[in-house]
C-alpha cells in the first residue's frame, strides 16, 4: 500500500527523469529485501544460534543455519568445558560436506571453538575428528587450536601422574668459575636455565638442517600428505614417531608461499612428539627457542607452559630469571626474549615485578633490549584504554595491574631518558610515557628538555608535557647539524652521493646506522645531529664511502674513516682522502677469443682485520680480455676485491692499495651445466630433492642441488672435479620411512668441466666410502 501511494505522489509532483531515478531506487530496495529474506544472518546470542543449527532438520537447513552464525560471539558467551554440541556439529559437517564443499571452512571454525571449550574427557572425539577427517589441506590452519587442547589434556594427565623432576647439577667447576660474582639466588637461576637450554643447544634441533645428513631431509612441498599422515599416526597412537623424524621435514621449495603455515605446524608437532616421549626439558626449551613465538605466548598458552615447568620440579620464575643472568655473564651477551614472555605473559604481579627488577639490572649492564621496552610500556597501558595500546609481540590479552606497579614501571622507564641515550629510543620511550597521562612523567621530561642535546627528543617531550599540563615549556637552544668537508687528494668532492655509516661498539656487539646524502659544490656533507648522537668519541666510528656508478669508472671509489664530531662542535670537520689509480692485469687459465666483455667489481674495505664496508657489484665498463682494467681513483688502504667478468671468470683477492700499485687477477672461464646421474644397475635410490658436494683439484669446494637424477651446476670454473653424494637406499618401498631409517650409502664421480660440456651429460656414479 505504501509503495502505491509513493508512486502516485511521484507521478503528480516530479518530472519524468526524476521519476525514473526514483523507480530505480525502489527496485534496488526491493531486491535487497528479497535477498535478505532468502539469506538471513543470525545475530542472536550464541546459545540461540547454536540451537538453530542443532535443530535443523534437512541438510540444506543445517548448512544455511551454520553459515549464518557469527562464531566470534561464542568466545565470550558459550559455556566452557562443554563442547558436546560443537562436536556434534563437526561430525555432521563431515557427513554432508561431499554435497556442500563450502562447509569446509565452517568445520575449521567450529572445530577450533570445540578445542577452546573442550574438557579433557572430550579428547577421544576431538582426536578422532582431527585424525580421520578428509580436510587434510586445512589441518595446518586449525592445528593451533588442537595443539592448545592437546596441551591441556596432557597437563591433566601429568597432574595425575607427575613426571620425574628435572635434576639440576649442584657442582660444576666451569659454571662456578664463570659465576663467582653472582649471588646465591642468581647462581641457582642460571644453573636452572642452563640445565634446560643446554641440551637443546647441543641437540640436532638447534641445527639448521637434517638429522644425520642433509640428504635425509624430507620435502613438505612434494610430500605434504605423507607429513600429515605421520602427524596423524603419532597423535592417534598408531605408530611411534620420534621428534627427530618430525624435525627432518623442510619446506624445500623455491617459492615460500604458505611456508609459514607449514613451519608453525611442524613446530607444534615437534612439541607434541617431545612431550609424548617424555623429554620434558627439550619440550620446554623448544618453546623458548622458537621463532614462531605467536604460537606459544598467548594468554591462553602461557599459564600452560608455566604449569609444565612447575610439574617438572622447577620454579618458572627462577628459570626465567636465569635468562637474564645468562645474558649478563655469557660471552654472547644475548637475552632470550621468550623467557620474558613466559615470565609475565600470564599477567600476575609478582612475575611482573621480577621482570622489572631484572630489567633494571639489564639497563645497568647496557643490555636492555627494545623488546623489553615494548613489553613494559604495554603493561603501563594495560589498565587503561587498550584501543591505541602497543601490544608486545605475541601478546593478545589484557592485563589489569595495580596503580602501584604501574607507577613503578613509569619510574623505571623515565630512567631510560639519560642525556647520552640514543635519540631514537628516547623518542619511543617518551611517546609511550605520554600515553599514560601520568603526572609522574612531567618532572623527568622537564629534565630531558634541559639536558638532552637532541632537539627532536626535546620536541617530543614538549608535546607530552603539553598533553598533561596544558602548557608548552620553552626549549633551550640545541646543537645544530654536523658538517664534514670531504676532499680527495686535496680537491673537494663536489656534488657526489656519499654513504655515511656510524658504527657503535658495545662489548663484543657492533651496531651500525647509515645515512645517504650528497655533498654540495664545496664538498661539504651535512649530517643531522641525531645521527651523530648515536655514538660519542671512543665508542663510535664514522665511515664515509662511495661505491662508483653504473658504467662510470671515472667516479672515485673510496672508504674513509672520519672522527665523530664532538657534542657541541659547530666547526666544519675536514676529511681528506688519499687516492690513486688501481690497475689489474688479467691472466687467463684457458685461451679465449679476444673480444669485448662487461666487467663488474666489488670492493670490501678492511680496517684492523675487520670487514667494515662493502660495495655493491657495479658495472665498471666494457673491456677486452687482453687489456688491463684501470680504476682511476681508489682510496689507499686494504681491500678484499672480487672482479667478475660474467661467464669468463671471477677473481677474489686481498689487496693492499698504495700509490702506483699494480695487481694481477687470474680468471678461469665459467659455464652452467646439467648432468644426469647414473647409478649401478643393481642399486636404486629414492628420487628426492637433495644436495651433492663437489671438490676441485685445487681444493676449492661447494654444494650443488640435485633433483631426482639431475644435478645442476651453476657458474662453474673450468677444471677437474669430484662429485660426492650420500643417499638412503630403498628397503621396504615406504619412501618416507626409507629416507628416515634406510641405510645411507655414498657415491662419487670424477668429471671435467670445459666449454665442450653438453647440456645434459651422463655422470656415472660408483659406490665409495663415506667422505
Given as residue ranges, the uncertain stretches (5+ residues, pLDDT < 50) are 14-22, 28-45, 209-213, 383-398
Number of helices: 26
Largest sheet: 8 strands, mixed
- Oligomeric state of the chains present here: single chain
Overall average pLDDT? 76
**What is the β-strand count?**
26
Mass-distribution shape:
globular
Topology:
Blueprint (H helix, E strand, L loop, with lengths): L1 H12 L2 H23 L7 H9 L4 H9 L6 H4 L6 H13 L6 H15 L5 H9 L7 H22 L12 H6 L5 H19 L15 E2 H17 L6 H5 L1 E2 L8 H18 L3 H8 L14 H10 L4 H14 L7 H8 L4 H16 L5 H11 L22 H12 L8 H14 L5 H10 L3 H15 L12 E7 L2 E2 L4 E10 L2 E10 L5 E4 L1 H4 L7 E7 L11 E5 L10 E5 L1 E10 L7 E12 L2 E5 L3 E7 L4 E7 L1 E8 L5 E8 L4 E6 L2 E9 L10 E8 L4 E7 L2 E8 L1 E10 L6 H7 L2 E10 L6 E5 L1 E3 L3
Parallel strand pairs: 1-2, 3-10, 11-18, 19-25
Antiparallel strand pairs: 3-4, 3-7, 5-6, 5-8, 8-9, 11-15, 12-13, 12-14, 12-16, 16-17, 19-22, 20-21, 20-23, 21-22, 23-24, 24-26
Folded structure, characterized:
The protein is of the alpha+beta class. The chain has 26 helices and 26 strands. An eight-stranded mixed β-sheet has the order 25-19-22-21-20-23-24-26. Strands 12, 13, 14, 16 and 17 form a five-stranded antiparallel β-sheet that branches. Strands 3, 4, 7 and 10 form a four-stranded mixed β-sheet that branches. Helix 11 (184-202) packs across helix 15, helix 17 (316-329) packs antiparallel against helix 18 and helix 22 (423-436) packs parallel to helix 24. Residues 14-22, 28-45, 209-213 and 383-398 have low confidence and may be disordered.
Q: What's a quick, concise take on this entry?
A:
This protein is α+β, with helices and mostly antiparallel strands.
Amino acid at each position: 500500500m505504501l509503495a502505491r501511494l509513493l508512486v502516485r505522489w511521484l507521478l503528480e509532483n516530479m518530472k519524468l527523469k526524476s521519476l525514473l531515478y526514483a523507480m530505480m531506487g525502489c527496485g534496488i530496495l526491493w531486491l535487497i529485501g528479497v535477498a535478505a529474506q532468502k539469506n538471513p544472518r543470525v545475530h542472536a546470542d550464541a546459545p540461540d544460534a547454536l540451537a538453530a543449527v542443532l535443530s535443523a532438520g534437512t541438510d540444506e537447513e543445517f548448512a544455511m543455519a551454520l553459515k549464518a552464525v557469527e562464531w566470534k560471539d561464542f568466545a565470550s558467551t558459550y559455556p566452557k568445558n562443554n563442547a558436546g554440541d560443537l562436536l556434534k556439529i563437526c561430525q555432521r559437517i563431515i557427513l554432508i560436506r561431499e554435497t556442500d564443499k563450502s562447509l569446509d571452512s565452517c568445520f575449521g571454525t567450529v572445530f577450533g571453538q570445540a578445542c577452546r571449550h573442550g574438557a579433557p574427557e572430550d579428547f577421544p572425539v576431538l582426536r578422532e575428528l582431527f585424525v580421520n577427517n578428509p580436510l587434510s589441506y586445512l589441518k595446518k590452519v586449525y592445528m593451533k587450536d588442537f595443539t592448545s587442547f592437546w596441551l591441556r589434556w596432557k597437563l591433566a594427565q601429568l597432574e595425575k601422574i607427575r613426571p620425574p623432576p628435572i635434576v639440576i647439577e649442584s657442582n660444576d667447576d666451569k659454571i662456578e668459575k664463570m659465576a663467582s660474582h653472582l649471588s646465591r639466588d642468581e647462581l641457582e637461576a642460571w644453573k636452572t636455565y642452563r640445565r634446560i637450554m643446554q641440551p637443546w643447544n647441543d641437540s640436532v634441533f638447534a641445527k639448521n638442517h637434517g638429522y644425520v645428513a642433509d640428504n635425509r631431509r624430507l620435502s613438505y612441498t612434494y610430500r605434504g600428505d605423507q607429513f600429515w599422515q605421520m602427524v596423524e599416526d603419532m597423535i592417534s597412537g598408531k605408530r611411534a614417531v620420534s621428534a627427530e623424524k618430525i624435525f627432518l621435514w623442510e619446506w624445500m621449495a623455491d617459492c615460500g608461499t604458505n611456508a609459514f603455515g607449514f613451519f608453525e605446524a611442524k613446530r607444534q608437532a615437534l612439541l607434541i612428539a617431545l612431550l609424548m616421549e617424555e623429554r620434558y626439558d627439550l619440550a620446554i626449551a623448544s618453546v623458548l627457542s622458537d621463532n614462531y613465538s605467536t604460537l606459544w605466548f598467548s594468554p591462553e598458552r602461557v599459564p600452560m607452559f608455566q604449569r609444565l615447568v612447575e610439574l617438572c620440579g622447577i620454579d618458572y620464575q627462577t628459570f626465567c630469571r636465569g635468562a637474564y643472568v645468562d645474558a649478563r655473564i655469557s660471552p654472547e651477551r644475548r637475552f632470550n626474549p621468550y623467557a620474558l614472555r613466559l615470565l609475565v605473559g600470564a599477567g600476575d604481579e609478582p612475575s611482573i615485578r621480577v621482570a622489572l627488577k631484572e630489567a633494571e639490572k639489564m639497563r645497568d649492564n647496557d643490555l636492555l633490549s627494545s623488546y623489553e621496552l615494548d613489553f613494559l610500556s604495554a603493561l603501563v597501558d594495560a589498565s587503561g584504554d587498550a584501543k591505541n595500546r602497543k601490544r608486545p609481540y605475541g601478546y593478545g590479552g589484557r592485563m589489569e595491574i595495580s596503580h602501584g606497579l604501574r607507577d613503578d614501571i613509569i619510574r623505571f622507564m623515565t630512567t631510560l631518558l639519560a642525556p647520552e641515550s640514543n635519540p631514537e629510543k628516547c623518542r619511543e620511550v617518551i611517546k609511550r610515557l605520554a600515553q599514560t597521562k601520568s603526572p609522574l612523567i612531567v618532572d623527568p621530561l622537564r629534565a630531558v628538555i634541559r639536558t638532552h642535546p637532541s632537539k627532536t627528543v626535546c620536541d617530543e617531550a614538549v608535546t607530552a608535557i603539553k598533553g598533561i599540563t596544558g602548557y608548552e615549556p620553552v626549549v633551550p637552544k640545541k646543537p645544530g647539524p654536523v658538517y664534514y668537508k670531504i676532499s680527495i687528494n686535496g680537491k673537494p668532492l663536489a656534488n657526489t652521493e656519499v654513504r655515511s655509516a656510524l658504527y657503535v661498539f658495545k662489548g663484543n656487539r657492533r651496531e651500525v646506522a647509515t645515512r645517504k646524502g650528497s655533498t654540495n659544490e664545496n664538498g661539504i656533507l651535512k649530517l643531522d645531529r641525531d645521527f651523530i648522537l648515536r655514538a660519542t668519541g671512543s665508542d663510535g666510528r664514522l665511515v664515509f664511502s662511495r661505491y662508483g656508478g653504473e658504467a662510470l669508472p671515472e667516479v672515485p671509489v673510496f672508504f674513509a674513516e672520519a672522527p665523530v664530531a664532538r657534542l657541541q662542535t659547530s666547526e666544519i670537520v675536514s676529511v681528506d682522502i688519499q687516492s690513486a689509480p688501481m690497475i689489474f692485469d688479467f691472466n687467463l687459465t684457458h685461451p679465449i677469443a679476444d673480444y669485448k666483455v662487461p666487467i663488474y667489481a666489488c670492493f670490501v674495505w678492511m680496517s684492523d682485520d675487520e670487514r667494515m664496508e662493502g660495495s655493491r657489484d657495479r658495472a665498471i665498463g666494457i673491456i677486452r680480455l687482453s687489456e688491463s682494467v684501470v680504476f682511476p681513483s681508489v682510496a689507499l688502504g686494504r681491500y678484499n676485491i672480487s672482479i667478475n667478468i660474467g661467464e669468463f671468470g671471477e677473481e677474489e683477492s686481498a689487496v693492499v692499495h698504495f700509490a702506483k700499485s699494480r695487481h694481477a687477477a687470474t680468471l678461469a672461464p665459467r659455464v652452467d651445466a646439467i648432468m644426469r646421474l647414473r647409478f649401478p644397475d643393481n642399486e636404486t635410490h629414492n628420487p628426492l630433492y637433495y644436495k651433492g658436494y663437489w671438490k676441485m683439484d685445487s681444493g676449492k669446494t661447494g654444494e650443488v642441488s640435485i633433483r631426482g637424477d639431475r644435478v645442476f651446476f651453476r657458474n662453474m670454473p673450468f677444471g677437474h672435479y669430484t662429485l660426492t653424494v650420500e643417499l638412503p637406499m630403498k628397503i621396504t618401498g615406504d619412501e618416507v620411512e626409507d629416507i628416515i631409517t634406510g641405510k645411507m650409502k655414498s657415491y662419487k664421480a670424477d668429471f671435467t668441466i670445459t666449454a665442450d660440456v653438453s647440456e645434459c651429460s651422463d655422470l656415472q656414479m660408483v659406490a665409495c666410502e663415506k667422505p
